[in-house]
Amino acid sequence: MSSQVKNVSEFKLQRILDHNQRLREQLDLPRVRVSQASSTLIKYVQSTKDYLVPSVWGPAGPADPFVTKGGISCGGCVIS
User: Where's the G protein gamma domain (predicted)?
Assistant: First the structure.
């Protein structure tokens, strides 16, 4: 067997072994059922106020981090 063919075969074997190792690592990752993940997401969305959707949460209060300080706003951006 020539050295070039041997090198190619070794390279292919190394790629397969690396891929196999990555698959084993993914297999060891903890899994969460879809029903549990979706219920957790629903609870989070229902309990966390989103100040950018005032039609759902009402007008923003003083705790709104998106309110401009001092009441002065530029009113948008200018593209020239």
Answer: 4-80
Contact 21, 27 (CB under 8 A): no
Q: Which two tokens stand for residue 62?
A: 């003083």
Q: List pLDDT tens digits, range 37-71.
A: 999 999 998 888 777 777 777 776 666 666 666 55
Q: In whole angstroms, how far apart are CA 39 and each of 26, 48, 69?
A: 24, 14, 36
Structure tokens at 78: 């200018």
- Contact call for residues 67 and 60 (beta carbons, < 8 A): yes
